[in-house]
Design goal:
With about 400 residues, the protein is an alpha/beta fold. The chain has two domains: about 15-60 and about 165-235 and about 325-395, FAD/NAD(P)-binding domain (3-Layer(bba) Sandwich); about 95-160 and about 235-325, D-Amino Acid Oxidase, subunit A, domain 2 (D-Amino Acid Oxidase, Chain A, domain 2, 2-Layer Sandwich). The chain contains eight helices and 18 strands. It has helices at about 25-35, 70-90, 105-120, 130-140, 165-180, 225-230, 290-305, 355-370; strands spanning about 15-20, 40-45, 60, 100-105, 130, 155-160, 160-165, 185, 190-195, 200-205, 210-215, 235-245, 255-260, 265-270, 275-280, 315-325, 330-335, 340-345. The strands form three sheets. Strands 1, 2, 8, 9, 10, 11, 17 and 18 form an eight-stranded mixed beta sheet that branches. Strands 5-6-4-13-14-15-12-16 form an eight-stranded mixed beta sheet, with helices on both faces. The protein has a two-stranded antiparallel ribbon with strand order 3-7. α1 (about 25-35) runs parallel beside α5 (about 165-180), α1 packs across α8 (about 355-370) and α2 (about 70-90) crosses α8 (about 355-370).
């Protein structure tokens, strides 16, 4: 008899914790509330279906080779959690640490990659710089000549980086939450937040009112709208990020390849498809459809690196919403002005790779009422206090 991954349950009048957003961040928070802190009277509200948002629309690249000490340590925790996640959740996540290249196309870019490598190594993360000939040995199909408009000068190589099956991660977290007794409510839209004397005490949904002891917002590009309901203005701008997947080919690309200069990245799945992404759209909006200009621009740039792809067919293309902060670092924070409310957002183009660490630390914040030291730098008020965590240099396609 076939078992359901998770069950549709009746909504209770009250939960200890209500989490808005049924993506990887919201589900990871719920999961770690249960396994780390024994808190299971939790509801996850998703206005569409599990994994509908960024968790189901990303290119599933994992890495921890960031630029700041705060970013490196945080994403390294996430990567280490990913390494054991399939065993922890008892689900094949198709995790492959195939190695991650960040290409450099100028002397300045090489200097930046050298600096990143030094920061990574100082924080115990495996990253180092490669010369073009070394890149060619590992990526035989890449063009390292001076023919392209932006010749390759070298690369930052990050061996632990790789890819994972993003929808499997979401399904596995949801199944584990369900087995722990957490309620997952799909097609449940949060319409209003109930406030009493400066405290969040509940939410109004399209299925009725729910009382709660703590409210956690994990809605990525929609975070500004949620926070406006409690009188909090966030330093966020939402841009779509477009991506595409090709038809399947015999495996030939055995590493993740990124070029921040060309604003492209690509990897190959176990099924043989090439998963390809671009930079964010240049103007903010909430559109989630791909455009011809994206396909044209991506094709032109990727052929400079891999001329062998001239006859590759695109199977489908899409866009997902990215909540961009001024310093390209996330916001995971209690809100001083509003009690019983936590916001988890600002992930930009690099949110899925953070999911386990995001959930782990958000759950600790919910359970203890204190901000863990690892995410203290990511408070929402750092922009007012001039304590930015500048990760633009390591945002790959974001700069």
């Amino acid at each position: 008899m076939t078992q359901r991954m998770w069950h549709n349950k009746e909504i209770k009048d009250r939960y200890d914790v209500v989490i808005i957003g049924g993506g990887a961040h919201g589900l990871a928070t719920a999961y770690y509330l249960a396994v780390n802190h024994g808190i299971t009277n939790v509801a996850v509200l998703e206005q569409k279906f599990i994994g509908y948002g960024g968790s189901g629309r990303n290119t599933a690249i994992l890495r921890s080779n960031y630029r700041t000490e705060e970013g490196i340590k945080f994403y390294d925790q996430a990567l280490k959690l990913y390494e054991d996640l399939a065993q922890d959740l008892d689900f094949n996540l198709m995790f492959s640490q195939m190695g991650h290249f960040t290409l450099a196309h100028s002397t300045a870019s090489m200097q930046a990659q050298t600096t990143r490598a030094a920061y990574n190594q100082a924080c115990g993360v495996d990253s180092y710089v490669l010369e073009p000939k070394e890149i060619k040995e590992m990526l035989p199909e890449i063009d390292i000549t001076d023919h392209p408009r932006y010749p390759i000068h070298g690369a930052l190589y990050h061996p632990p980086g790789g890819i994972i099956r993003h929808d499997a991660v979401v399904w596995a977290y949801a199944r584990a939450c369900d087995r722990a007794g957490i309620h997952i409510h799909q097609l449940t839209k949060m319409e209003d937040i109930i406030m009493t004397d400066g405290k969040v005490t509940g939410v109004v949904t399209n299925r009725g009112k729910i009382n709660c002891g703590m409210l956690v917002s994990c809605v990525a590009g929609w975070s500004s709208g949620i926070c406006e309901q409690v009188g909090v203005k966030l330093a966020l701008v939402t841009h779509p990020l477009q991506a595409l997947v090709t038809t399947a080919y015999k495996p030939w690309l055995h590493h993740v390849v990124v070029s921040s200069t060309l604003h492209i990245y690509l990897s190959q799945t176990d099924r043989g498809e090439l998963v390809c992404g671009n930079g964010i759209d240049h103007y903010p909006h909430y559109g989630m459809r791909s455009t011809l200009s994206f396909l044209e621009g991506y094709a032109a740039h990727v052929l400079e690196l891999f001329p062998i792809l001239h006859n590759v067919s695109v199977q489908r293309a899409w866009a997902g919403l990215c909540d961009m902060t001024p310093d390209y670092s996330p916001i995971i924070s209690l809100i001083d002005e509003v009690q019983n409310f936590i916001v988890n957002c600002g992930w930009g183009t690099w949110g899925f790779k953070a999911s386990p660490a995001s959930g782990w630390n958000t759950a600790e914040m919910v359970a203890t009422g204190r901000t863990p030291a690892l995410i203290e730098p990511f408070r929402h008020d750092r922009y007012i206090k001039n304590r930015l965590v500048g990760e633009k240099a390591a945002a790959s396609v974001g700069n």
